[in-house]
Amino acid sequence: MSVVIWAEGRLRTADERIVTAVDHGLTVGDGVFETCAVYGGRAFALSRHLRRLARSAAGLGLPAPDDDEVRAATAAVLGAAPDAGRLRITYTGGPGPLGSHRLPDADQRPTIVVLAGPATRAEASRAVRVPWVRNERSPVAGLKTTSYAENVVALAEAYRRGADEAILANTVGELCEGTGSNVLVERDGALLTPPLASGCLAGITRELALEWGREAGLTVREESMPYEVLDDVLAGVAHLALSGSIRNVSPVVALDGVDVKAGEASRELQRVFQQRAADEIDP
Ligand SMILES: Cc1ncc(COP(=O)(O)O)c(C=O)c1O
Which residue's C-alpha comes closest to atom 2 of ligand 1? Predict the structure, then answer.
């Protein structure tokens, strides 16, 4: 399927010009976004995604997005794309100066674009370590901004090495997250995920995995870990899993090109997540 586009109040054709060349999202990456999984024509966990969109916008100093407008746009694109696997909501500073400064608040007119498109899902993930770090002290740490160039470069490196995700440390050498996923380390049956203070995104899948995993009797908790914990994964004494809106919970079966075993608790969490997600579209 091709991508279905909504912008400025209505559906658009792929060849329509929509966003102006001076949009601050385009010129300086001044914007925020969300990606939701779509099941049977409905966006998964849309309310949680909209709350995070508002938090990210506030963190950038953008006015709050209009939830009703985004929900209407979502209904429009999903209505026109019954086979969609993912929904993408982008919210930017709108037309602005060519520099990083913004127009006065009254003159700021944010841009909203909502897209529905296909998604490919794999049961397992292949990860690589990369030398770059997340800055947990960045003014945009934990915000889902459209400034994703660092992730683009790191993910290209992962693909170049035959993997589909790159795992980053933060500036103090702690395990942080992937370019588009959170990480879980399984050790002795417990699943541990870095705390938000590591600079990782507050992933919706991570949040639900913590809630649903505990409700299913699994041990899932936040814990800060050194990046070197990945050596233990290579040595086979720990396991790794990723969480993200399109992957859901996905055990890692290769690290740095070396096959590693998926952990049993990781597989169980994957199963629990899939089952709960199938039952509750907007948990
Ligand atoms: C940097 C980063 N971390 C983590 C995630 C996972 O978040 P979620 O589970 O909300 O998709 C994403 C999602 O794309 C991301 O971009």
Answer: 180
Could you identify the atom of ligand 1 that is nearest to the CA of residue 246? Answer: 11
Cβ 134 under 6 angstroms from ligand 1? no
**Mutate which of 55, 125, 144 for ligand 1 pocket (most atoms within 8 A of beta carbon):** 144
Q: Show the DSSP H helices in 42-142 as ranges.
A: 46-60, 67-80
Adjacent-strand bridge partners of 59: none
Per-residue pLDDT of the chain (283 residues; tens, 9 = 90+): 789 999 999 999 988 989 999 999 999 999 999 999 999 999 999 999 999 999 999 999 999 999 999 999 999 999 999 999 999 999 999 999 999 999 888 788 999 999 999 999 889 999 999 999 999 999 999 999 999 999 999 999 999 999 999 999 999 999 999 999 999 999 999 999 999 999 999 999 999 999 999 999 999 999 999 999 999 999 999 999 999 999 999 999 999 999 999 999 999 999 999 999 999 999 9
Report CA(104)–ligand 1 centroid distance (Å): 31
Q: Which residues contact 191 (CB under 8 A, 6 or more apart)?
A: 184, 185, 209, 213, 218, 219, 220, 221, 241, 263, 265, 266, 269
Judge if the beta carbon of residue 27 lies within 6 A of ligand 1.
no
Ligand 1 atom closest to Cα of residue 49:
10
Residue 37 in contact with ligand 1 by CB distance below 6 A:
no
